[in-house]
Amino acid sequence: MDDKDQYSDVVIIVPSRIGSTRLPKKALEKIGSKTLIEHVVLRIKSKFKGNLYVATDSEEIANLVKKSDAIAIMTDEDCPTGSDRVFQAFKTIPYNDKIKYVINVQGDMPFVDLHVVEQIITMLKTEDYDIVTSGVKVGKDIAQAESNVKIVIDKHGRALYFSRSMIPHGGEEFLYHVGIYGFKVEALEKFIKLEKSKYEVCEKLEQLRALENGMKIGVCVSNEIPVSVDTRRDLEKANLYYNQLAL
């Protein structure tokens, strides 16, 4: 089975809004000679060309996506979450009734590991999860930052809880959450219709809405924390990483 057949029922949607707060218009910032969103698109397109869309509220971002020979879908500026933006875009995709799985890859991961995306797709297709995401084992030095979300899973790899706190208490090793999500289509639609939940509001983590409503989230464990760009310092690190790759 070639890639085209293997992924014919899968769509990858990258949410990319212009109004980022910590690094304004970060999608338009340069890493080397290309913008952040161009790096994301070109990397994903190398494996999933016919299955890729970018959901955005910006004509500037849309034009860069088109320049990269990918498809941009305009979405509302006031989408409350990335998942809402992904679902709004999904509803406009031609022949979306043929799609069974929706993968949400964040628009701030210029060097996203495509093997992890493949792992998530495989778990969605072969295991009984509504949603699948990824985690990386880390030590206390990384886990202690509140911005680094931690996951506790059961012995089968099912998520029990996500938190900005150090969970499990007393642990020496932690599971750092990588924000790539795979949804079964019916699970994404159910999730979007749910009201914000108690712990989601408390932790500011939308995936807790799914857990609080009994949805099953599987976690695949990967080997490397991806470079993500949220701040000016992150952008500097991304450029350093890119320059090292070019050596």
TrEMBL record:
Coiled coil: none annotated. InterPro entries: Cytidylyl_trans (IPR003329), KdsB (IPR004528), Nucleotide-diphossugar_trans (IPR029044). Keywords: Lipopolysaccharide biosynthesis, Nucleotidyltransferase, Transferase. It comes from Candidatus Megaera venefica. Transmembrane segments: none annotated. The keyword Transferase applies. This is 3-deoxy-manno-octulosonate cytidylyltransferase. It comes from the Bacteria. Signal peptide: none annotated. CDD domains: CMP-KDO-Synthetase. One of its GO terms (molecular function) is nucleotidyltransferase activity.
